Amino acid sequence: MPKILVVETSPRGEASISRQLTKRVISNWRLLNQDGEVITRDLAVAALPHVTMPWLSAYFTPPNTHTPDMAAQLRLSDALVEELLAADELVIATPVYNYNIPASLKAWIDHIVRKGLTLGFDGKGLLTGKKATVIIASGGIYGAASPIEHLNFAPRYLESILNVLGITDVTIIHGEGAKAVDLGEATMDKFVDAVVPEMKRSAAA
Ligand SMILES: Cc1cc2nc3c(=O)[nH]c(=O)nc-3n(C[C@H](O)[C@H](O)[C@H](O)COP(=O)(O)O)c2cc1C
Predict the structure, then answer these.
(1) Kindly report the CA angle at 172 between 167 and 174, in degrees rounded to 5?
(2) How much is the pLDDT for 182?
(3) Residue 179: how many CA atoms within 13 Å on its side-chain side?
(4) What dotted CATH number matches 3-204?
(5) Is 175 helix (H, G, I), strand (E, B) or coil?
(6) For ligand 1, which residues put their CB under 6 angstroms from it?
(7) Strand ranges (DSSP E) for the chain?
(8) H or E stretch including 190?
(9) Which of 4, 148, 180, 182 could be 89's S-S partner, Cβ–Cβ 3.0 to 4.6 Å?
């Protein structure tokens, strides 16, 4: 049974464009994976703690010499890594904030990049064989001809960190110009249809 892990970050609930795009991506995925399981990690519902000194002490201590406190420091990170390792596919859905990913998503990344678990001691990524889809909603439009193309850090960063972890099959879905929906210049349905067309049942068969 294929498993897909969906990491959601937008705090905007139903008004969130990245979440609506995710719904479409997952509904298309379900047509292709009818026995598939979707696991959701919602970072807007349960925010992750940022890295602290006790966490780092545990991180840099070999697991076989962990004190009970060190083991406790890494418990959440261990669970997030386990969740990721168990997934065949990963979806990351995120807004662009200040030209980059929100801090909530960066916190998740800081928890799942773990030497010996997701990143080899030789620096090679250990998540080989997984596929990732990155869904990005941004108010602005970035592209070769855009005057803000040089500020398009979010997709570059996410693709790079996934590559570092060994995930090379990365599809990026650009929900650019999403402010048209917030300003009432486009409907959410039209925007979603244009960015991620609905897969027809016959196409999936
Ligand atoms: C605090 C904040 C900062 C933002 N910064 C940017 C930005 O730097 N570049 C951009 O293109 N859009 C920016 N936006 C617009 C959002 O990316 C856009 O509203 C997007 O649809 C948010 O994703 P969501 O609809 O899934 O919540 C920002 C929005 C907020 C609330």
Answers:
(1) 160
(2) 97
(3) 7
(4) 3.40.50.360
(5) strand
(6) 10, 12, 16-19, 95-99, 137-140, 178-179, 182
(7) 3-8, 37-42, 89-95, 131-137, 169-175
(8) helix 188-195
(9) 4
Of the candidates 7, 95, 16, the one whose C-alpha atom is nearest the C-alpha of residue 46 is 7
Query: Which residue minimizes the CA distance to atom 19 of ligand 1?
Result: 139
Q: Minimal CA–CA distance to 30: which of 81, 91, 79, 76?
A: 91
pLDDT of residue 201: 79
Nearest to 137, CA basis, from 13, 25, 17:
17
156 and 118 Cβ atoms separated by less than 8 Å? no
Tokens 């879905």 sit on residue: 173
Find residue 116's DSSP bridge partners.
none
Tell me the whole-structure pTM to 2 decimals.
Answer: 0.97
Name every residue whose Cβ is closer than 8 Å to that of residue 69 and which is 6 or more positions away in sequence.
54, 58
b or e along 135-155 (b: 16 or more beta carbons within 10 Å of the residue's beta carbon)?
bbbbbebbeeeeeeeeebebb
**For residue 169, what are the CA distances in angstroms to 34, 39, 147?**
22, 20, 29
- Ranges of residues in the chain whose predicted pLDDT is under 50: none
Pocket test for ligand 1, best of 10, 96, 101 (most atoms within 8 A of CB): 96
Q: Output phi, psi for 104, to 5 deg.
A: -60, -40
Nearest-CA residue for ligand 1 atom 23 is: 95
